[in-house]
Amino acid sequence: MFMITRLPVVAEAGQVTLLLAPNRALSREQVRRLVWEVCIAALLVAGLAAWGGDVFAPMFTLIEIPVVAIAFRLVWRSGDRKERITLDTDHVRIEQLPARGRAASTFPAAWTRVQVLERGDGHRHVVLTAHGRAQEVGACLGDDERMQLSRWLKTLLSGRSGWRES
Hints:
Elements: E1 4-10, E2 15-20, H1 28-51, H2 57-78, E3 82-87, E4 91-97, E5 105-108, E6 113-118, E7 124-130, E8 133-137, H3 143-158
Antiparallel strand pairs: 1-2, 2-3, 3-4, 4-5, 6-7, 7-8
């Protein structure tokens, strides 16, 4: 799956939509299989430990298995987050999917500027700014994908923006 998907242009509106999603290395079925394999391995190790004299190992394994399964589920669900960036002739709209109570941000296209910032964490961050407001986009992407996103956004905004790149 591509992490940045460019949806078809709406011709009459001149609208371009970018859908940003994190990379998922495993499908839902593969994650379920992995959880089962980890649980079976934990039970085998606990059985061997019990056979070797550690009578508490099976009890701890029965506590460990649900914790590991819940951790895998939480990690999998964190990959559901997506961003949709919609550029039309007048506005840039940034939406978090699923919304979970967060409102969409809207910037005027003519004044929106794309900046790439290094904040000391070893990563580059793509930030859209306009009228004193700023919003990071592509936080779920890797550095290479963020740089591709910044190039695409600069290209898409170049015809609409009053800013000149120096």
